[in-house]
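Worked example 3 (structure in, sequence out).
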């Protein structure tokens, strides 16, 4: 068993422990213990990864585990990490750990709150370690869905409007991602052989450039919605302002990074020729976002809006 499975097992066991806790204080301490173990696992992973690299292991990804899930569509539970995903796992572990203490004073439905928060974190961890497009997408959705509950129930201000706006826009982005993933799957073996969702195998194939140009906008825009790319960013300020503090921390520090990581790991990595040809469009959108975001922040008086 790979060390990476701990990043799925520990949150799941923590959620089970929370569900069986008998008091509000016990719920909080179970969450603290679980996420402390998660943080220690992340620190251990960083040291192990650096040790492997110093020892001369230059493999593309480390700590690989590959288990077949669904043979008909060739879906695997395929996990592994490189330097970028290790860094993101460390960041996520730290933010979730801090978010537990930032939510210590939650009074309304603490069991449900911490369950939703840790389920969100489970999706994030799963997304960062998965190397199979299908399972990666499942964890991506697991990370996005709890946001609606966390903002809609425990948020402030126009929380119902913010939660619904966030959910609808992110679900729209997810639909684009799903179309892109399906397109890649059916073009994953241009020279013959079984179709696959395996990121590493697909990256070594040459998908026809016309197909790349067609699929790249679906994936980049789909992940870009979560990354608050202009002009699909409008859910973010409302979501930040209405979210509880811990959720806002996860939102800004981790969840939006899923969008950038997805653009890098899926869109650019698997469709490099299209990324080279169409990159200028997204550079323009990114530049507009930088300038527009800075001008927008100048006028804000709410700290969460400024951050968003």
């Amino acid at each position: 068993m790979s060390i990476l499975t701990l990043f799925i097992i520990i949150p799941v066991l923590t959620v089970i422990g929370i569900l069986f806790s008998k008091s509000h204080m016990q719920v909080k301490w179970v969450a603290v213990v679980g996420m402390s173990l998660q943080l220690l696992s992340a620190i251990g992973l960083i040291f192990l990864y650096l040790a492997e690299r110093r020892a001369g292991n230059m493999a593309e990804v480390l700590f690989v585990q590959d288990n077949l899930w669904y043979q008909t569509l060739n879906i695997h539970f395929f996990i592994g990490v490189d330097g970028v995903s290790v860094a993101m796992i460390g960041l996520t572990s730290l933010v979730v750990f801090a978010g537990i203490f930032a939510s210590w004073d939650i009074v309304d439905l603490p069991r449900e709150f911490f369950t939703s928060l840790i389920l969100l974190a489970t999706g994030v961890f799963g997304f960062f370690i998965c190397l199979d497009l299908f399972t990666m997408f499942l964890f991506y959705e697991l990370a996005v869905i709890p946001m609606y509950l966390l903002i809609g129930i425990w948020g402030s201000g126009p929380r119902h409007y913010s939660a619904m706006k966030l959910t609808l826009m992110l679900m729209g982005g997810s639909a684009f991602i799903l179309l892109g993933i399906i397109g890649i799957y059916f073009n994953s073996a241009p020279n013959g052989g079984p179709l696959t969702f395996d990121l590493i195998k697909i990256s070594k194939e040459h998908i026809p450039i016309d197909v790349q140009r067609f699929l790249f906008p679906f994936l980049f825009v789909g992940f870009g919605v979560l990354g608050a790319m202009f002009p699909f960013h409008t859910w973010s300020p409302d979501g930040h302002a209405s979210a509880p503090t811990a959720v806002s921390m996860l939102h800004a520090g981790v969840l939006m990074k899923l969008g950038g990581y997805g653009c890098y790991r899926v869109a650019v990595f698997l469709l490099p020729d299209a990324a080279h040809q169409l990159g200028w469009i997204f550079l323009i959108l990114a530049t507009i976002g930088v300038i527009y975001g800075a001008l927008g922040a100048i006028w804000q008086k709410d700290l969460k809006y400024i951050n968003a």
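Notes: The radius of gyration is 20 Å. The mean pLDDT is 87.
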